[in-house]
Amino acid sequence: MKRSRFFNTIRIASVALVLVLTGGCTNLDEVLSDRITSDNFLQTKEDVIRDFLRPFEHSYWTIQGGATFMLQENSSDELMTPNRQGDWFDGGQFQRVHYHTWTPNDGYTSDAWNALYGGVTLATNTLEDLQGITDPARFNMTQAELDDMIAEVRTLRAWLNLRLLDFYRNIVLVKKVKGESQGGLQVPPQEAFSYIEQELKESIPNLPTRQSLGANAIGRWTQGGAAALLVRLYLNAKVYTGTDHFADCATVCTDILAGKYGQYALESRWDAPFDYTNPTSGETVFGFPGSFAQTHWQYDGGMYFWMLPVNATFYFGFTDFGTANPKYALQPGRDVDSTEYSFALGKPFIKFQKYPDDVRLKTYKNLGNSKREGMFLQGYLPYINSNGRVDTVRSTKGPYPLFFRDQVGLFLGAKPGTKIADKTSNMNNADQNSGITPVKYPYYPSSDLNKISSAYAEIRLAEIYYSLAECKYRAGDKAGAAVLLNTVRARNYPAGSPSLYKPDGSQLTDQEMLDEWGREFLVEGRRRTDMIRWGVFNTGSWWDKQPDADNHTAIFPIGQNVLNVSTQLKQNPGY
């Protein structure tokens, strides 16, 4: 893939910003004949474009930066970061996320706040610059171009604010940064909800459509993207404010699917929304462009590269990032004796196995020519080693062959099916065999020109189908919900598969709806939010997790490091 002009421009903008912040003479008495300040930084159209793009890369980073991905997934019934014989214990911090026993002194409670507000601050600063342009012709721009930029940055900020509302509920609405010496006061959730809603509604008319941008749509907020954020806001409104907006959510979903906000279409293959062709996919409603040569946050940092078993890179033939050290894996569905657990929640791999003809259940395998099959790393992972011999992925603790299984325990070198004496299966007793891992974004071999070239699909059209299906289900229209879900699900099964829902929707229950959200959006950073909306995040049981004493952990504490700096903030209830 060609180097991304989007992020190349951002890189140039970052250099320019450093020059602005660090340049100049140290003699404060000197009379300067030339100086760059916030008032005259914008001199050309290129300056305006750089200013416009500046908040976007930081916002891309926030999909995992500040532990945002970890907090969404590890606190749910989906992913785990267990103690693997001393690896990833890290003072028990990930176990506290799993057990919902985090405290304001855990660094990630501050990190997520700071990461998201870093984006809000950058976006607000850019907005003030853009809104301060009174004569766009001076920059060889039209008013429509300027209005488009303003609308896109407002939408970007709304996306960040929506995530802050979801994480912390009692948040500060940053509307001005220039000349400000401290942040504002927190507002009630309803006020934050109304503000985000207003920002999106006012921005939509000035936003481009996907079609008007053509191949350059990736990384740009469009009418469809902003409308999809309204869907997220309305779908979770009852959690956020106590008042449901499912009818509003259904209306916006229907309008999106009807093409009111641009033309979109589902892919025919399950993996296409995550492949290197996804920047121009009709299913990508909003995404951040990525490439091996430039930025690819979903592939490193705190996301998918840390979801790979140790030494799995040899199996892929992808060695550019070195070998892996597995931070994440799916929570187990079976005990050490391979007996399925009885709880209804969790067991993500077993939830896939419920429909055994699901093509995603195949073991992930690179097929050559930028193609792959299957979504899970499971069992033995064979490859040809440097001596030209068939080998299999091995432990760094042995080195014995690793057999990846839907179980957690100290299996060590035990062959599959062998009963082990230690029956303990919990967050503090795992080895490198423990847990199956999904591979949604491909790891093509190092020799493949399309390696690590996928965009990050933050919003897919499938989400709109599922959101509308949930609204119909909640309104009593199970048949309508089943049709919508099957429209997406059909690509996961062979033609005529019995795994598709019956047209009358009779198989749909609250648990099945939540399970299906988990299958389609596995490890896409939303599981906690979905569990809270379905009322089971605090009351449910899953592997090595008992119900919480109360529901105050539905939102995170504001980190103590944040409170120490911003003394006007009030801690969230229960902390």
Automatic annotation (TrEMBL):
Query: Could you state one GO cellular component term attached to this entry?
Result: cell outer membrane
Q: Which residues form the RagB/SusD domain?
A: 423-575
Pfam families in the cross-refs: SusD_RagB
Q: Which InterPro entries match?
A: SusD_RagB_dom (IPR012944), TPR-like_helical_dom_sf (IPR011990)
**TM regions (residue ranges):** none
Q: Which UniProt keywords apply?
A: Cell outer membrane, Membrane, Signal
Q: Where in the cell is it found?
A: Cell outer membrane
Which coarse location class describes where this protein primarily resides? membrane
Protein family (similarity comment): Belongs to the SusD family.
Q: Provide the protein name.
A: Starch-binding associating with outer membrane
Q: Which organism is it from?
A: Spirosoma fluviale
Q: Give the lineage.
A: Bacteria, Pseudomonadati, Bacteroidota, Cytophagia, Cytophagales
